[in-house]
Amino acid sequence: MVDNRYATALVISCVLSALATVYLAVAVGTQHWFQYSSPGVRGEANVSDLRSMHEEFKDGEFDEKMYSDTLFRLNGSLGLWWRCVLVPEGAHWHKEPQDIKLVMECRSFTLAQQFTPKYKEPGNHNSGEDMLRTYLWRCQFLLPLVSHGLVVMAALIGCCACLCRSISPTLGLGVLHLLAGLCTLATVCCFLAGMDLLHRVSVLPDGVDGSLGWSLYLALVSSPLHMMAAALLIWAARSHGQNYYRMTAYRVA
Predict the structure, then answer these.
(1) Hey, how many other C-beta atoms are within 10 angstroms of the C-beta on 191?
(2) Residue closest to 172 by CA, chosen among 244, 234, 235
(3) What is the rounded radius of gyration, in angstroms, for the C-alpha atoms of the chain?
(4) Structurally, how many domains does the chain consist of?
(5) Cα separation of 13 and 46, whole Å?
C-alpha cells in the first residue's frame, strides 16, 4: 500500500519527466540552437558571392568553413542535426529589401558527418585535428540520445514496478532521471563551448551578429525538469523505505 503523498509525488514526477522528454525531443529535432543576423545584399559583387554560397550550400557538401561562412552571410541557423539559411524566394537577389520574401532552406548533418573531425583552421585539413572541438561536437549529438535512452529505460522499469505493485525501484528511477538531466545539461554546455571555440578560429564578417535560439533554451528547460522528477522519485523512495522499516520494527516490538 502506497501513501497518498508518495503516489502524488510519483504522478508529478511522471508529468515532469514526460514534459522534459518532449522538450528535449523538440529541441534536438529543430534547428534554432544558434542564429546569425546578416546585413542585406549590397552591390553586384555581393549578390554573386551570396548566390555562389547558396549553390554550394544546396549541393550539401560538408565542409565546416564553407557551411559556416554561408551561415554567417545568409542569416543562418544551426542545430544539432540541421543547418539552415534564409534566401530570397525564387532567387530574386536583386529586389529591394522590402520586396524580398525570404524562405528557409535546410540541410541535415548525416551520421557520418557528425563524426567528421574538426580542424584547428576550419577548412584546412593540413592544420591538424582540433581534438577539443571534435569531441565537443560528437558529445553534443550523442548525449541527447543517451538522455532519451535513460528515460526510456526508466519508463520500462516503472511499468514493470507498477505491474508488480512495488515502489522499490523508485530510487533507481530517480537516479536514471538525474543522469538524464545531467546529460541534457552537458549537451547544452558542449554546444555553447563548441560555438565559442568556432568563433575564435573563424572571422565573422562585419555586421554579423549571433544569438542563442529557442531550441537551445528548450533543451535548457528540459534539464531541471528531469532533475525535479529525480528529486521527487528519490524522496518518495527514501521516505517510503524509512516508514516501512519503522512499521516493521513496531510490529516486531
Answers:
(1) 25
(2) 234
(3) 24
(4) 1
(5) 54
pLDDT value of residue 2: 47
Check whether 47 has a pLDDT greater than 80: no
Q: Residue 124: its pLDDT value, please? A: 80
The C-alpha atoms of residue 67 and residue 40 are separated, in whole angstroms, by 19
Residue 182 maps to which CATH number?
1.20.140.150
pLDDT at 249: 36
Rounded Cα–Cα distance for residues 167 and 170 (Å): 6
- DSSP for 102-122, please give it: EEEEEEEPPHHHHTPPPBSST
Domain with 202, as residue range(s), is: 4-246
Confidence of residue 220 (pLDDT cuts 50, 70, 90): very high
The answer to whether position 198 is within a domain reads yes
Q: Which strand (E) or helix (H) includes residue 152?
A: helix 131-164
Q: Report d(CA 139, CA 157) in Å as an integer.
A: 26
pLDDT tens per residue, range 49-74: 777 777 777 776 678 888 888 888 88
